[in-house]
Amino acid sequence: MTVIARFLAVLASLLFASFSVLAQAHDGHLPQSDGVIKKIDGAKGKVSIAHGEIANLKMPPMTMSFKAKDPAMLKGFKEGDKVRFRAAEVKGDLTVVSIDAAK
Ligand SMILES: [Cu+2]
Q1: Bigger pLDDT: 54 or 25?
Q2: What is the pTM of this model?
Q3: What's the Rg (C-alpha) of the chain?
Q4: Fewest CB within 10 angstroms: 37, 59, 91, 96, which?
Q5: How far is the CA of 65 from the centre of ligand 1 (A)?
Q6: Domain 31-101 sits in which CATH superfamily?
């Protein structure tokens, strides 16, 4: 490998790494998914959601439990509420990173 080619390869991998870090840091870039709240456990910061497809997690529709990024974000919601939310894998846990009431 020439010096130039090696330099370009390092540059490309650095760029790629910084882009993926940025993509994870900005929750707003994750696609929103639809869901209906089935159960809330505020003490544990857990919420069970019957959700539609979650494109970024390649997950088909199902009902499952998520961790809330911040338990306080669950305040004001109750079972049966329709929501729009963003989910991501955070330190191995499937986590709701944002949640809003669906109109
Ligand atoms: Cu799921």
Answers
A1: 54
A2: 0.74
A3: 18
A4: 91
A5: 8
A6: Copper binding periplasmic protein CusF (2.40.50.320)
d(CA 77, CA 37): 8
Rounded to whole angstroms, the Cα distance separating 102 from 49 reads 13
Interval between CA 18 and ligand 1 midpoint (Å): 28
How far from the centroid of its chain's Cα atoms is residue 1's Cα? 39
Cα 63 to middle of ligand 1, angstroms = 6
Domain ranges of the chain: 1-29, 31-101
- 50 CA from centroid of ligand 1 (Å): 8
Distance CA 76, CA 26 (A): 24
Torsion angles phi and psi, residue 78, rounded to 5? -145, 170
| CA 6 to the chain's CA centroid | 35
Determine contact, residues 47/40, Cβ cutoff 8 Å.
Answer: yes
Degrees to nearest 5, angle at CA 37 with 99 and 88: 45
Ligand 1 center to 61 CA (angstroms): 6
Q: Tell me what pLDDT residue 97 has.
A: 97
